[in-house]
Design brief:
about 375 residues; mainly alpha; Cytochrome p450; 3-stranded antiparallel β-sheet; two-stranded antiparallel sheet; about 5% strand; binds protoporphyrin IX containing FE
Length: about 375
């Protein structure tokens, strides 16, 4: 998958050359969305969405529609948190019927095409097709994941048997598309924003990227990304300040008295855990508005209580795309930062203004920055 990400990253870099030569102002959230849409198209569906070259491509439009902030969507979301049964009864949906059916048609056509013509590809859809046809999937994760594999195997034994129908397949693809492109592009754009506000950190990161890429003959590989420890700190700190998913939801499985209070959460209650609140609590993150990647040094990480940093959630329902999301955001960022410099311009929102009705936490009027050549 990293090869597909690198290919998209190179294409994005090339497309931005002219803007950098002219020191132009660009909107980086949309640019990052074009990138992640193309990555997801390739690794989930094995389709060429062409969203970098053509930001008006059909899938990009569908992506915009899926996450477009609107008062109606925000109202349904809030109603769903408080009265989930009512929302279900009224048949209210966050997504328009046209968008959903377009999406389902594409998945169905792709599956049918592959099955009819015996086409196989190394992507997520192919894994689902194999499950549909009762093919046992080969687990090719590396040894370092042995613990995780063990957990999954334990889980598998307990899992209910299910049939992978065409509709279940399209649901899975739909969720991965929706959860996969906007979160990572938001993470990328907030990282560029923070780097523009903190040029010394941008410079230090640029030096790390140069050094590691030189070691890897200029190639952005899985290993090269893992060697960039400062990049990891920078991205973690960005997700602390601007977590794309600012809240987690859980249903309480047992009555629980909140220690030191008269309040009890009853079994069956749905609760909202405000990760963004924890991330900005000075008790855990002193001077919380300061962008300081060193909060994520091994030493500092160990000083904090567990579960105070939750950009991907925690427990058995932790984000299933965490490593994928981090990898695509980092590959995109490395491609850009190896050649370009980003700085604030007159349209940059300082401080950041969030969109109050957006599906994911995002900048209200986009993130405008000036792009120029580094060297
Ligand atoms: C920087 C990028 C991302 C962030 C910040 C993020 C964040 C999250 C969060 C907070 C959750 C809820 C976890 C919980 O309740 O404990 C979640 C769930 C999920 N995410 Fe992500 N995500 C990212 C990227 C991705 C990508 C790339 C994919 C797929 C390609 C993905 C697929 C999912 C799915 C399917 C779930 C639901 C998992 C479940 O309920 O079992 N995410 N994500």
């Amino acid at each position: 998958m990293v090869d597909a990400m690198t290919e998209c990253s190179l294409e994005m870099k090339t497309r931005l050359q002219e803007s950098a030569d002219n020191n132009s102002m660009i909107e980086v959230k949309d640019m990052a969305g074009n990138f992640t849409t193309q990555v997801i198209g390739s690794v989930i569906f094995g389709l060429q969405f062409n969203s970098i070259k053509n930001p008006d491509s059909e899938f990009r439009k569908v992506g915009h529609d899926l996450v477009d902030p609107s008062n109606k969507r925000a109202a349904i979301m809030m109603l769903g948190h408080v009265f989930p049964k009512l929302v279900k009864m009224l048949g209210l949906s966050l997504q328009s019927k046209e968008t959903v059916s377009f999406f389902y048609r594409v998945v169905k056509d792709t599956v049918q095409y592959r099955e009819k013509n015996g086409v196989t590809r190394n992507d997520f859809l192919q894994l689902l097709i194999q499950l549909k046809n009762n093919v046992k999937l080969v687990d090719d994760r590396s040894k370092e994941d042995e613990h995780l594999r063990h957990q999954i195997e334990l889980g598998d034994n307990k899992a209910e048997q299910f049939e992978m129908t065409e509709s279940l397949m399209t649901d899975q693809c739909f969720v991965f598309f929706l959860a996969g492109f906007e979160t990572s592009s938001t993470a990328m754009s907030f990282t560029l924003y923070e780097l523009a506000l903190n040029p010394d950190i941008q410079e230090r990161l640029g030096a790390e990227i140069d050094e590691v890429l030189e070691k890897h003959k200029g190639k952005i590989t899985y290993d090269a990304i893992h060697e960039m420890s400062y990049l990891d700190k920078v991205v973690n700190e960005t997700l602390r300040i601007h977590p794309p998913s600012p809240n987690l939801t859980r249903m309480c499985t047992d009555s629980y008295n909140l220690p030191g209070t008269k309040y009890t959460i009853q079994k069956g209650d749905v609760i909202i855990i405000p990760s963004v609140g924890l991330h900005h609590d000075p008790k855990y993150f002193p001077n919380p508005d300061k962008f300081d990647p060193e909060r994520f040094s091994e030493e500092n990480k160990n000083l904090r209580p567990k579960y105070t940093y939750l950009p991907f959630g925690e427990g058995p329902r932790i984000c299933i795309g965490m490593r994928f999301g981090l990898m695509q955001a980092k590959v995109g960022l490395v491609g850009l930062l190896s050649r370009y410099k980003f700085s604030v311009c007159e349209k940059t929102p300082i401080p950041m203004v969030y969109d109050p009705v957006a599906l994911f936490m995002s900048a209200k009027n986009g993130v405008h920055l000036t792009i120029s050549n580094r060297k």
